[in-house]
Amino acid sequence: MQACRREAEMLERLRNGRPDAALGEHAAECPSCAEVMALAAAVLDDRATLMESAPLPGSGVVWWRTTMRLRREAARRALRIARLVQVALVVAAVAASIALLVPKGTTIDLPAALASIRWVAVPIFAIGALLIMAPVAVYFVVTEE
Amino acid sequence: MDLSALMPETTLPVELESKTRAAASRMDEESFRAFYERTARPVWAYLVRITGEAQLADDLLQEAFYRFYRARTVYESESHRRNSLFRIATNLAHDHGRRRRRGVDVPIGEEAEAVHADASPADRVTKRMDLGRALARLRPLQREILWLAYAQGSSHEEIAGMVGVSRKSIKSLLFRARKKLAELMEAK
To answer: Are A29 and B96 in contact (CB under 8 A)?
Structure first.
């Protein structure tokens, strides 16, 4: 069976109501158009029934969910940036402290320096982690609520 | 059968088209909700038929509207806007299909019928179930093209943009899909 040139016209008429008499007569003699007509009518009927029975949430609910989700995403992005800034600030503070505390011209023996701060490293790290993580934890608790 | 009730809303009056164009630059709550009211049902019906699952269609519809709004694209017309939404919905269905193929395979075509079977007279339900099963046996691309052409009344160019294939190949793909669907419907 070859495609018929009048199939597009047939579809257009079907979508806008029903084919006129001339097109109906043509469909009776043209197997291709008859097939298009039968399938398109079934699909259009199916679509109409599905649309009628669609259990959709109201537009207000969808709008609210959409905007809330966008806000959450924006907050998450801002938090990521804030976290990076915090880390950068801590690194800068440590670097500045070292620069201020170590006299000019002094060379630092890194292994020896690390060994000397070994006993205070854990509490410093814990305090640093607390400073960084506390705002993050508070944020998540608040947003979950 | 009088098919006037089945007519899809593919075009808008000129006045509404121009109003939509004016509001296109920034979609506020009112225009978003109006757009949702106009398009959610056809998109949901499309998603049900291309995924075969009403529940999944619910989720994908919500996601499609979210992504559509997040994109904040300016559209020339209501039809461009609508086509974009269908393209997003199609991509989401594709993504879901890819994820599913990597995981557990769930048969399609039954759940949607179970949800809606009680809404129609018996013969219509039977016909729709036959159509649903036949569509479920087509390849995803065939289902999408057939639905967009016959149910949505989209042009070949629009379909090409929505499903991501060249415009030239749509005609032959649609013809083959139609033949396959007719075979399946006859063989039921």
So the answer is: no
Which pLDDT tens digit goes with each residue over A59-73?
999 999 999 999 999
3-state SS, residue A4 = coil
Alpha carbon distance B64, B93 (integer Å): 10
Q: Write out chain A residues lying below 8 Å of B179, CB-based.
A: 1
* Other C-beta atoms lying within 10 Å of the C-beta of residue A86: 16
Taking the C-alpha atoms of residue B35 and residue B65, their distance in angstroms, rounded to an integer, is 10
CB B188 within 8 A of CB B133: yes
CB nearest to B40's CB, from A18, A53, A56 = A56
* Residue of B97, B83, B93 whose CA lies nearest to B42: B83
B8, A47 contact by CB (below 8 A): yes
Q: What is the rounded end-to-end Cα distance, in angstroms, of chain A?
A: 64
Q: Is the ipTM of this complex over 0.85?
A: no
